[in-house]
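Worked Example 4.2. Consider the chain below.
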Amino acid sequence: MKKRFLLLFSLLLAAISSEAQKWQPGYFYDVKGSKVTGLIRLYPSGRGPVKDEAFVEYREDAKASTIKLSASDLRSFTVARDSFVVAANGGWSPFELDFVRVALNTPLRLYQAQGYGGGGGSGIGIGPEIGAGIGTGGFGGGFGGGISIPIGGGRKGPKSSIYFYGSNTANMKPIDNQNFVDIMSEVMADEPDAVEQIKLNKYNLGSMEKLIAYYNKLQDSHKSQNQ
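Applying the procedure from the previous section yields the following structure tokens:
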């Protein structure tokens, strides 16, 4: 009986811990440009407040009520080191408006989105035109590399990271195996060591997050030397 109680108690603690991990400190900018801090949940379940738009959930603090924020309510939001902006769907999302992560805030920005399939598991392709962007990616701090995470709610099917480049979301274009070396060499042009590794084919589209981590490590090293 005691063992059974301990098992149930452990499962309860695990469930509470899992729920707590979904909420992370961060902030968002609304469509008027006002900054609001609090807790944000990146992958809420259920339906969003606006049809065909991705959404996140917000709380002022752990005891506050939950508010659903649709993509059209926001300019951008930041959770931990990861920053996201709103972008119009160009074939990579089941939503008309979705969020993309600003993977690198360089002059030629690097964006990352999650491509999702339908209920049958078929992948969503990338069309030649991304469409008009909503956010420009030019908001306040918090930029940095991070892990790929699912964002928004109500998605089905397998997910995989899709990367784009552009000065903002209005003109972002997909990165593929053919343009990877040229584009990433330009994105990381301020770090010659990273560019050399790219041109030596040490990284590819499948190891993009490792390349981003390497670039950020070089950036952090330079910052520490200048302090």
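The beta strands are 23-30, 35-41, 55-59, 67-70, 74-79, 82-88, 97-104, 109-116, 159-166, 173-174. Confidence is low (pLDDT under 50) at residues 5-21, 116-158. Compare this with Example 4.1 before moving on.
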